[in-house]
Structure formats: structure tokens, C-alpha cells
Design a protein that fits this description.
Helices cover about 60% and strands about 0% of the residues. It is mostly helical and about 55 residues long.
Amino acid sequence: MSKREISRYRFWQETGVGRDTAYRLCNDQTYIPTGNVLEKICATYKVQPGELLN
């Protein structure tokens, strides 16, 4: 997110995931999202799951 200069709020709005989930993803580096959430993020930002789970 920092590379793309995306705020937590913008991430939440663009992906359509739940607010708590979006903020947790931004704040907790150990949190791994469910498959559905991962799919929404990948579709929104046109990336592969492996790019997110480094």
C-alpha cells in the first residue's frame, strides 16, 4: 500500500472488504486474509496472491 500511496480508508473503499478486515490487514502484518478477501484485493489491484503474501 505504501508503494501505491493508498490510505487505509481508500483501501477499504476500493476493495469492498469489511472495514474491520481492511484496517486489520493494514495494521497487522501477521494477519492472513480469507480466500474471498484475497480474491477481492487481487481483482481490485490486478495482482496475484503471491505478490501480496510475501
